[in-house]
Design brief:
The complex is a heterotrimer of chains A (about 325), B (about 300) and C (about 350).
Chain A (H helix, E strand, L loop, with lengths): L5 E13 L5 E13 L3 E5 L6 H8 L7 E6 L2 E2 L5 H10 E4 L13 H11 L6 H14 L16 H13 L5 E5 L7 H18 L2 E5 L3 H7 L2 E6 L2 E7 H6 L4 H9 L5 H6 L30 H5 L5 E4 L2 E3 L8
Parallel strand pairs in A: 3-8, 3-9, 6-7, 7-8
Antiparallel strand pairs in A: 1-2, 1-4, 4-5, 9-10, 10-12, 11-12
Helix pairs in contact in A: 3-4, 3-5, 4-5, 5-6
Chain B lengths: L29 H10 L2 H18 L35 H37 L1 H16 L2 H11 L4 H10 L2 H15 L3 H8 L4 H37 L11 H9 L6 H29 L6
Helix pairs in contact in B: 1-11, 2-3, 2-11, 3-4, 3-6, 3-7, 3-9, 3-10, 4-7, 7-9, 8-9, 9-10, 9-11, 10-11
Chain C lengths: L2 E14 L2 E14 L3 E5 L6 H8 L7 E3 L4 E4 L2 E2 L5 H7 L4 E4 L3 H4 L6 H11 L7 H14 L5 H4 L9 H13 L5 E5 L7 H18 L2 E6 L2 H7 L2 E6 L2 E7 H6 L4 H8 L40 H5 L5 E2 L5 E2 L24
Helix pairs in contact in C: 4-5, 4-7, 5-7, 7-8
The chains are: A alpha/beta (about 325), B mainly alpha (about 300), C alpha/beta (about 350).
Chain lengths: ~325, ~300, ~350
Amino acid sequence: MSNRPVELEVKHLCKYYNAGRKRLLKAVDDVSFDIYKGETLGIVGESGCGKTTCGKTCIGMLEKTGGEVKFQGKDVHTLSKKERFDFSGKVQMIFQDPYASLDPHQKVYDIVAEGIRIHKLAKDKAEEEHMVLELLDMVGLNAEHAMRNVHEFSGGQRQRIGIARALAVDPEFLFCDEPISALDVSIQAQIINLLMKLQKEKHLTMLFIAHDLSMVKHISDRIGVMYLGNMVELSGSSDLYRKPLHPYTQALLSAVPIADPKASRERKKIMLTGDVPSPVNPPAGCRFSGRCKYCMSQCFDLKPELKEVEAGHYVACHLYDEK
Amino acid sequence: MENNLVLNEKSFQRMEKKQKDLGVVYHRSIWKDVKKEIKSNPMAVFACIFLAVIIIACLLAPLSPYDPNKLDIANKFLAPSLQHPFGTDEYGRDYFTRALYGGRVSLLVGFSAMFVTICIGTTIGIFSGYIGGKLDMLLMRFTDIFLALPSMLLMVVLNSFLKPGMTTLILVLSLFSWASVARITRAETMSLKERDYVIASKNLGASSVLIAVKHILPNILGPVIVAASLGVASAILTESSLSFLGLGISIPHASWGSMLQGAQSYILDKPMMAVYPGLLILLTVLSFNILGDVLRSALEPKIVK
Amino acid sequence: MNTLVEIKNLSVSYFTYAGEVQSVRDISFSIEKGKTTALVGESGCGKSVTSKSLMGLIEKPGVIKEGSQIIYNGKNILDFNPKEWNAFRGKECSMIFQDALVSLNPTMMVGKQIMENLENHNEEGLSKGELRKKAKEMLDMVGIPDAESCLNKYPHELSGGMRQRVMIATALITHPTLLIADEPTTALDVTIQAQILELMKDLQKKLGMAIIMITHDLGVVADICDDIVVMYAGKIVEKGSNEDIFYHPRHPYTWALMNSVPRLDLDSKEELVTIEGTIPDMIHPPKGCAFCSRCPYAMNICAEQTPEVLDLGNGHEVSCWLTDPRADVSGVPFQTGGVDHE
């Protein structure tokens, strides 16, 4: 896997917010990972763990506080105006809320055609029309939908329009920010299938962020687990489920309810006590130290580094320190 | 359940798949919402009808057989009759015709002032809200100054310095009313620029101008229309006040305000001379205000499934 | 049978500007004492409206149609007068909601909110001190550490999980026989959700109340529910015990719902089962089976006539034409026909 070309390289990325009274909210704190070309990296974590902030900073939507993000070898935060414009043709985003992400005063056709017009991808009106209809067909809508207003569509259909809009500029990298969490169960599966199909057809690289672990596992090749602004574990998706190493990952996975009564009853759940501490004053040392049942004395003082423990399986925990 | 359906061999055959239907669809447009809101409110129906009648009547004023400014002293202070529905004034001019011509002036000033106000206010509001930062601070302090000025007083002063006339009046009126429109559009723009669809457009590489024209302007239209409707009302009112003070339209041309001023001297003998223009001002302003309210409730965001 | 509440032919409509939305259309089911019943379905299927009818919370423009009955202790609660409703609500039947921050009063201390419900149903005439003691016991029971100091806190000072616990304490302080939980864990993170579900199971064992669980998360359903009612477009398409529904679904909607969620414990990159299309317009509900337009196995009759309810025994009931012996069942991936499994 590691001999594949790296598409997005994130090194020691930090994003702090000013929380007033000279305190810092450390939304993302020293996170490093690579995304290889053509793969899907999922990031999971509970609300407030910084996964969305991390993703938005990675594609340059937010300014970083420290560290470095390189897309195809170029730092995304120091692009010139021209480079920035080219970047927008390569990196696109799918939003969480299908109701807020489409302009209510535009027709579907105009929404999808916007990227084509901005990047001047079509020679003339006829080609533009052809491209839009092709895009709509690709996401499972038809020509008849093109001239309709956005408010006539249901959540799932709107999300399809959003996907068509992102694909209009023929991007290489897609950042999906919780694209299914606002949808009904039966619609979620439609969107996931669609994204997987498109990834295969277009050889997209994807960064997929969600809190639904089972969906993330289904769509991702590798998964990163975030806790309180830190990446605590990163590994192949089935590997992660079969053998979670970090105590937080173990608890998180065991807490996901399984839609099977027998399996659900037989499973042993690891109950976490307490709540997630505030990212304004995160614990020194390991962020998970206060809730971890394997906590050792060094966990309170020394922050564990993300290390490769097994091939392709990274974890940040003192339990796996070499003796 | 009554089994009254004829079952045949086809009943249990697999259905052929039809074209996928669109699902739940409620057609909804701004125009339909406004119509519905107006219909549900009898006051609004009255306001609309009244405004339509006034506007058409003022437009058709030249059809009147009388010249609004021609003196005819012999026929002064005639009581209302079929020939002179509102009677005549102290110079024997047909009061009804004068009221219509006065309405032309009042409405023209009202609409033009509103138009200029909206143009200035919206432009400054969008600039200020979208670009933000230092420019926003600067523009907003400037706006605050205009909001804090005692506008009536300054208008009186300005009007007495400048050459009186319609254009001056319109410009002076707009100068003192764009600030509140700028405030409204700035607030709307600030909230709109954080919306996902604006961010999506930015991600696609759209320039700021394109975003402002394509995404922000159409979406702030609602509040702007409401402000415009209320703006007409207040412009008519202010114009009347200025004309009443003798600072508006110059004699012999009529406006509702200057007619009120003329009627002042005869208020005890001929009270109806003040009542006609006064009633017209009152009803027109009231109608525009009602219309503004109706538009506000029609255009405010509704949850549509 | 140990029936606590029996809902018979319940129909609820909302009269909106677009027309009459038939949210719930003639549904019947019963809730067993001390058991957990899940109402499962997509948003807009009528599950929340059903629970609101139970609490007497249907307000204009909503109307409960003639002929609807909800029998509790031999009485039809839909005939209650306001006084009887007040005695029933909060005392016999309590409700917890999705968002605790919205449903708790932000300007009232936690202790006072818990006691308020108890005071309203204070038949024994307990004193303030005794009420406070009871409130503290309840907070202990829902697993809040340092209950005494929690009584004097405001809701915003508590974390999401703690607020949910406080809301459960408020609902259960009067020891109701029925607890309605409307998506109680949807807004919570998975680790907190696991804690709350564990707590609800635990409290049910201790207090013996019946729970109606409204949710769309099948994982939660599998975890805590005994009986399941699957609703679609205002109708019950299938109901039965937890095992019946999960292992022997007989309705294509239930089957698709079960298979549209990827399983965390299984390694599969297969395409998920999807339900194409969207829910039908409830202003003009379809003439036949409501699921017809989205069902891959729909037959001509499905569009014409509503299928009758077929009792498969053991409380497992399904309403689908595929159970008819004449049906074309080729390629249907689940069991059809009229005979139930062992």
